What does this fold into?
Amino acid sequence: MGLDEFVADFQRDEADERRRLAEEKSYAITEYLEGVAEQFDERLQGDALFGSTAPEVFVGRSGYPNVSTGVLSPMAEDADAAAYATSGDWYARGLGVEDVLQRRSGLLNSTRTADVDIYDTWDGFVGVQREVAIADRPVDVEVGLADTPDLDMAFDDITTPTGPRARARDAELAENPHVPRAVEKTLEDDDWRAEGAMTYLYRRGFDVYDINTILSAGALGQGENRRLVPTRWSITAVDDTVGQYLRGGLQHSNSVDTVQVWANEYMGNRYWVIL
It folds into this structure.
């Protein structure tokens, strides 16, 4: 089939595909949110939530430079917190829309408002959040809640969904986080620009989603320039930096002597590569 036929098929099917995915998402949201309130009540200890947090944080962009920042905690008892963090492994495992919704709808986003300038802040709620972000595995945390959670899910065209949200009063680590040596190295060097540190971590095998979390928590960059980065912005920054690094390596690749068209699809997104 010629490229023009591929494009024509894509244009014809796009509207139907969007409607289908919208129906799937609506059905999945309804199904998976039914037990959220019950899970929350079971996990709550007084006005606190104790357990492992996913090695991932969320930083909003509204009100910048005073932003909403939170830690993400699975509400299911004995849940594998690591499985809830966004990962490139989802594609390799063939996870679909409902699988992602199941994971994300089960995460409580405990939030507080903070100023983005947090260069040397490693205590309080923001300090706990940063410790969680730079760890390479889930961390046990006790989060004091100021109110009951809002059970509405938040959707965005760039970031993965987040589950119920509740205002946090405080947070405390219940164990020492395990921080990879490569991340410690980027933290110790106050002269290392964020772009170089991101490329370094990628070359050391870090997933782009892990780098995004570390950048969001203000753990990359030069000394006093380190600050919280809204999740939406950090995704763009990491994608751009890693993309430039990968494009730079293409000049050493073998040339092709014919036109090649490669296509793929995942969760309603279609990808085309023309060589």
In short: The longest strand covers residues 66-74. The first helix runs from residue 3 to 33. The mean pLDDT is 83. Residues 23-250 form one domain.
